Amino acid sequence: MSIFPDDIIAQAEAIIRDFTTAGLMVSTAESCTGGLIAGALTEISGSSAVVDRGFVTYTNTAKMEMLGVQEETLIRLGAVSEETARQMVHGALFRSHAAIAVAVTGIAGPGGGSAEKPVGLVHLAAKSRAGGLVHRKMLYGDIGRAEVRLATIRTALGMIRELAQP
Known about the structure:
With 166 residues, this protein is of the alpha/beta class. It has a single domain, classed as Alpha-Beta Complex (Maf protein), CATH 3.90.950.20. The protein contains 6 helices and 5 strands. It has a 5-stranded mixed sheet, sandwiched between helices. Helix 1 runs parallel beside helix 6. The longest helix is centred in the last third of the chain and has 20 residues.
């Protein structure tokens, strides 16, 4: 039995299987999910061949120190922004041995939202050493903290698989 829903486990199993076959590794940079993307991947037996590392960067200081996110970006655009997600994924990729990295930053709620950045807003970025970069701005809505986080995991795992396609 897993702590994750069956569909997330199926996504994670596919990544572990495909990345093991291809000899690829993945890293994660997580804010609003607090390490749950890495957790979903490491729920699968054999994941140590695929998961290089995960960065849990909940604070702006952690984003800057661990991933190299620019302070100016955080001041000008905020932690929950496309540019922050892009800088996070770049840092995760180049501070690891991964072929593909994924980063997420968002507002899971129930508080913390605003008119400009509502609860349920999540920016995700995935980047490949081969040069691919994907960004998604998701507006999940105020569906509850757990549901925002689960939806984010699903999207992030999908983005990893998308970038791994030849």
